[in-house]
Amino acid sequence: MKCLITGGAGFIGSHLSEALLKKGNLVTIIDDLSTGRLENVEHLRKEKNFSYYIDTIMNHVLMAELVGKCDVIFHLAAAVGVKYVIDHPLETILTNVGGTEIVLSLANEYGNKKVVIASTSEVYGKDRPGKRIFSENDDRVLGPTSINRWGYSCTKALDEFLALAYFKEKKLPVVIVRFFNTCGPRQTGRYGMVVPRFIKQALDGEPITIYGDGKQTRCFTDVSDAVRAVIGLVCESRAIGEALNIGNPHNKITINALAKVIKRITGSKSAIQHIPYEKAYEKGFEDMRHRQPDISKLKSITNFSPRIGIAGMLERIVKDFKQKNKLAQSS
Questions:
Q1: Is pTM, for the whole model, over 0.85?
Q2: CA gap 312, 18 in Å, rounded
Q3: N or C: which end of the chain has fewer CB within 10 A?
Q4: pLDDT, tens digit, for every residue of 205-230?
Q5: How do beta strands 252-254 and 217-219 pair?
Q6: What pLDDT is attached to residue 189?
Q7: Is 152 one of the catalytic residues?
Q8: Cα–chain-centroid distance for residue 235?
Q9: Does the pLDDT at position 68 exceed 90?
């Protein structure tokens, strides 16, 4: 299978590239390195079935060439991370919506290529009374347009609307995957991702900074589980035209508890500090108190079950951080 991965030098994209190559597929990636890093795929550059392009998906001519040569497109390129989205609201909208429209239109033009669209649990929006577990047909509840973080949710929802419109009107085979708090080696904390940020702070002996009261809960998914779920959906005809949650409902933990576990695993003496959301992000910022995925739809189609618990996931990430720190010190 000839695979094109947009955002392939990103965190999830690099792991997906690796897994597809191991299965004997041909993999081509495109990434503008705005949030991705070439070092994420450095170990893949010697693979004969791997090729890469450092360019934007807005390059219509190049994208037409790449789409024309592939069998399936994994569209992961997007502006991501709460901090990045808040700091770059215009780029977020233009990249997420405009880029997806280019991918879908070219996939349709060049022979109805299958497209896997990466979406997010952010599409569900705000908390609502008595609602902690989210399934694919739940209503969306969002805040005002004056708060930038809701713009990201809207862009990804519009991506989904676009994909489903192409499926309905053009019969384009699309699969939408909504990632819930995916974590693992190579993820950076620069854009607000909590796990790598906590681990870096702990290893550097800096205060572990929790935004808000820390009582909010999240369900963290190991990237190897997320990638396995995505690959499992590619060849499933029942997934076409559907949106599916990808997450690990068993890895539920408060952010306070997460900080303590990371402190224990790293052996850090870092203090744990709480910072108001408005100081960390922007005035009026709202966070979801609880976010847990219902993955019964995914399981019914692929028989997927997550394998990596939160301790194993964190230990893998800590090991990766330590190895990179050791390399940096020796160079």
A1: yes
A2: 20
A3: C
A4: 999 999 999 999 999 999 999 999 99
A5: antiparallel
A6: 78
A7: yes
A8: 21
A9: yes
Coil, helix or strand at residue 165: helix
C-beta of residue 59 within 8 angstroms of C-beta of residue 85: no
Residues recorded for the chain: 331
SS3 readout for 70-124: CCEEEECCCCCCHHHHHHCHHHHHHHHHHHHHHHHHHHHHCCCCEEEEEEEHHHH
* Closest among 262, 271, 270, 272 to 313, alpha carbons compared: 262
Tokens encoding 274: 């709480």
Under 8 Å between Cβ of 143 and 286 = yes
Asked whether the CA dihedral 287, 290, 295, 296 is positive or negative, the reply is negative
Q: Domains of the chain (ranges plus CATH)?
A: 2-182+223-249+292-307 (3.40.50.720)
Candidates 53, 84, 152, 191; catalytic one = 152
pLDDT score of 284 more than 80:
no
